[in-house]
Amino acid sequence: MIPASRLALTTALLWFVAANLVGLLLGVGALPYSWRPAHAHMQLLGFVALMIYGVAYHALPRFRGVVFRRPGLALFQVGLANLGLSGMALAWGLNLGPGVWGFFAGVSFLAGALFALLMLEVLWA
Length: 125
What we know:
Blueprint: H1 3-27, H2 36-64, H3 71-93, H4 98-124
């Protein structure tokens, strides 16, 4: 398993626990409603997307019978995804404004685009 896959799977599980904690705190009224979008992003981008990244980095090269050629770039992509998500979640929860949220949304977009390019290389190279 390449380091990017291990990191993506580990952080996916950590985001899952964190998102559930935020959901619990929202449910009991300990957090303001500004955290609701953060909770959703933590579940969808944190748990779901990172789980997909981790499984895909491990499985797709094996399905194709090829060696994954860019493990360092994949590790950078997972770090970028975590950075973008952290920034978006905090921007929503702390009401930091659309400029801050938009910047980190752009970082997340770049991470997603990089993942797509890396997987297209695996599928077609």
